[in-house]
Amino acid sequence: MASPKKSAIKEKEQKLIEKIEQAKKDLARLQDKRRIELGKLACKHGLDAYEDSALDKAFAKLSKELSGGH
Fold it and tell me: What is the pTM of this model?
């Protein structure tokens, strides 16, 4: 039979694991929401009419400019 101390540790461990899993779900939800927002912004400016390869190059250039060339 497990000692009370080991049981308490296991319970704390399980609570932390559950908290981590919830945080992962929350992060994924926020990332999905951000992707949707970015997609809406792109469509608002008519970027959905361009080929993916052209957009990829333009976004790479924009990313480099925004990061200060780093």
Answer: 0.68
